[in-house]
Every structure is written in structure tokens, then in C-alpha cells.
Amino acid sequence: MNQPLGQDGVFVLSRDADAYVRLLADEGIVAAAATDAAAVAARYAGEPVVLGDPGLLVQALDDMDGVRWVQSTWAGVAPLLDAASAGLTVTGIKGVFGPQMAEYVLGYLLAHELGVIQRFQWQAEQRWVTTPTGRIAGKTMGILGMGSIGRVVAGRAQALGLRVLGCSRSGAATAPFTRVFAVEDLHAFLGECDYLVTLLPDTPDTAGLLDADALAALPAGAVLVNAGRGSVIDEQALVAALGDGHMGGAVLDVFNQEPLPQDHPFWTTPNLRVTAHVAALSEPADIVAVFLDNFRRFQAGKPLQYTVDARRGY
């Protein structure tokens, strides 16, 4: 077991605060905590280290004058970018969400090819339908967002027989991707994708990247999976591409507005599957493992891992 890490004041602001506090206590760290932003003013006592959910932290940082470093519990840190721009040290989470995300992406692509939903309907109708199913092996997956999560998804996809392409700012070769395109060649990249997986963060450069022209560059019947951020997609263009049959399907876990409004066209768009931002959940034990490594670095005066660059947005 690791040695106790000392008492450099830690404050936890998370809906899962109780779980985080227990896990930290196992490592000798006594942390104050709150589960909502409204309680921070009464409970925060100048702790320099804060572990928390960005959506809550953005509401509470004005009441946390002593904070020197914030460790996000989420992969996405968009709510904390203003604080990072103002000079606060913010660190993200890497190396945790890849396996979950790979299961989500591949699970839905397999369900699409196997016609799982349609076959459930045929069973309910007591219909014996011998239409053959599709396969993912031998097809091409393109991934936008080649960070730690994207690399895990790529590796798992290759294990199932997929050819995996990537697209990045530089276009530099990156394992395990078969080929990487530069973002200037986005449409050429899209033209090779039977499946397009987007794992991009919410930044000015990614907003609206998949507009009508980009979606039209996909081959007929292509399937889109977006588990990054909703802002990357032109929503009206996606509805049109699915409605006219150009695209074979879409699976969306993230949206410009969450929860998705009940009158949003995505609910009724043909061949579109909606999930409620569940592709990769923050498990406290996983997050604490990343936090503890950074906490040791903080105590030793060493550089922290996964520091957010506000200019890049992640």
C-alpha cells in the first residue's frame, strides 16, 4: 500500500463526493466535500487542491479563493477553460475512458450491422426473416480525436478486423492508425470512412466541423458515432443527410443542449440512435488513481500530468 500522502488541504466538489472522500481516506487524505455548488461557500476553507466535476466547479470557483490546482473528474474540461485562461492550473483525465468508449462505439456499430433493433421488431411480429446481416470486418473506420481515447478505440477496432484511419492537425503517422490525414484533407479522409467516430473536444476549431459539405463527403451508407462533443456536428445537416438516405445511420451520445429537448428532431430522425451522455462514465476509483499520481507530484513540486492548455481547449 502507498504511504499516506499528507494533509495538503483537499476539497471535493462532485455528485459522487462521498465515494471520492472514502477513496481518498484510504490513502490517508482527509478531504472536505460538497455535492452541489450552493454548499461550497459554507464548507470550503481555503483548500489549495480541488477535485471536482467541471459543471459544478464553474458555478463555485468564485467562492474558492485559495485554490491553486483543480483536478477535473471528467474527460471534457470546457467549463473550466476560462479559469485556466485566467491562470488557474487545471488538469484533465487521460488513460481512463478508452476501454469504455471502445465498447460503446463497437457495440453500436455491431448492433447496426447485425440489425439488432430490426430483428427484435421482427421477433415481436413473429416474422422469420432470412435477410443476411452485415459485418464490420474489412470495413474502414475513421476517427476524429486521436488522443488516448481514440488510440484505444483504434486498437480494439483493428482487433475486430477494421482498417482504422485518423485525422489530425499535423497528419503525422501515429500508432495504431493505418494512415493519418491532415485536417486540410478532411474531405479526402471522410471519403474513405464506412464508419466515422468523433471523439473531439469542444474547441473553436472543432465547432461545426461536420457541416453539410463534410457529411456529403462520406460514402453513401456511412454511419456516424459521436461520443466527443455535440458542437462538432451541424445538427440540421445531419438530420437532412439521414432523412434523404445518404447516411446509413448515426449514434449520438452528446448534444449542443443536454438533456436533449423533447421537441428536438433527433428523437424522430430515421436511423438515428440517441444515448444520454453515457458512453464513458467517470468511475471514482479510476479518477482517484489519476488524482493521486498528480497529488504526489503537487506535493513534490513537480509538473502535473495532463495540464489543460486553455488556448487549445484541452
UniProtKB/TrEMBL annotation:
<dbReference type="InterPro" id="IPR029753">
    <property type="entry name" value="D-isomer_DH_CS"/>
</dbReference>
<dbReference type="InterPro" id="IPR036291">
    <property type="entry name" value="NAD(P)-bd_dom_sf"/>
</dbReference>
<keyword id="KW-0520">NAD</keyword>
<dbReference type="GO" id="GO:0051287">
    <property type="term" value="F:NAD binding"/>
</dbReference>
<keyword id="KW-0560">Oxidoreductase</keyword>
<dbReference type="InterPro" id="IPR006140">
    <property type="entry name" value="D-isomer_DH_NAD-bd"/>
</dbReference>
<feature type="domain" description="D-isomer specific 2-hydroxyacid dehydrogenase NAD-binding">
    <location>
        <begin position="107"/>
        <end position="279"/>
    </location>
</feature>
<dbReference type="Pfam" id="PF02826">
    <property type="entry name" value="2-Hacid_dh_C"/>
</dbReference>
<dbReference type="GO" id="GO:0016616">
    <property type="term" value="F:oxidoreductase activity, acting on the CH-OH group of donors, NAD or NADP as acceptor"/>
</dbReference>
<protein>
    <submittedName>
        <fullName>D-2-hydroxyacid dehydrogenase</fullName>
    </submittedName>
</protein>
